[in-house]
Amino acid sequence: MLRVVDLVKTFVHGRTRVEALRGVSLDIPDKEIYGIIGHSGAGKSTLIHCRNLLERPTSGSVILDGVDLTGLAPWELRNHRQDIGVIFQHFHLLSSRNLLDNVTFPLEIQGVARRERRVRAMELLDLVGLADRAKDYPSRLSGGQKQRVGIARALAGSPRVLLCDEATSALDSETTRAILGLLREVNTALGVTIVIITHEMSVVRHICGSAALLEDGLVADAGRLVDLVADPGSRLGAAVLPVDPGSVPPGERHLLLTLPDARAGSPLLSRIARELDVDLTILRGGVERIGLQEVGRLQVLVARAERPGVPAGSAPAELVTKVAAYLSQHGVRAEELS
Question: 110 is in which domain, residue-wise?
Answer without folding.
Answer: 2-238
